[in-house]
Design goal:
This protein is mainly beta and about 120 residues long. The chain contains two helices and six strands; from the N terminus they run αββββββα. A six-stranded antiparallel beta barrel has the order 1-2-3-6-5-4. A hairpin with a 3-residue loop joins β2 (about 30-40) and β3. The relative contact order is 0.20.
Length: about 120
């Protein structure tokens, strides 16, 4: 089995969501924030595009605009592509498929007050 298939365990779904990402810099302990776009989501991770890269292995909090959802994650991949930084984030804990579908469509589930169990 190719290495790519081994490392990519969850099915990725395209999406187009505005997100705010926050983290604390190691030096100076200064809080930082950036606005970007989530372009792919799975139950275990996200691919986002930002104006600047965030250091590898940094813990971040990601807020999905208009959805009332905050997700904790860690930077697992970072590269600059043109004027954007493409970041791969590994979620601190997997999210349910219902939430993945809601994020893919941009609509909060109607019958759910809570995002996670």
């Amino acid at each position: 089995m190719p290495l790519k298939k081994i490392r990519q365990r969850a099915t990725r779904t395209p999406c187009n969501l505005r997100v705010t990402i926050g983290w604390t810099e190691e030096e100076g302990h200064r809080d930082r924030y950036m606005i970007g776009a989530c372009v792919e989501i799975s139950a275990t991770g996200l691919r986002i595009e930002l104006p600047q890269p965030i250091p590898y292995l940094t813990y971040v909090t990601l807020r999905v605009e208009g959805m009332g959802l905050a997700i904790s994650a860690r930077v697992r991949h970072s590269r600059v592509r043109g004027a954007k930084a493409v970041m791969g984030l590994e979620l601190s804990e997997p999210i349910r498929e219902q939430i993945v579908e809601a994020l893919r469509t941009g609509k909060k589930p109607e019958n759910s007050r809570r995002w996670q169990d």
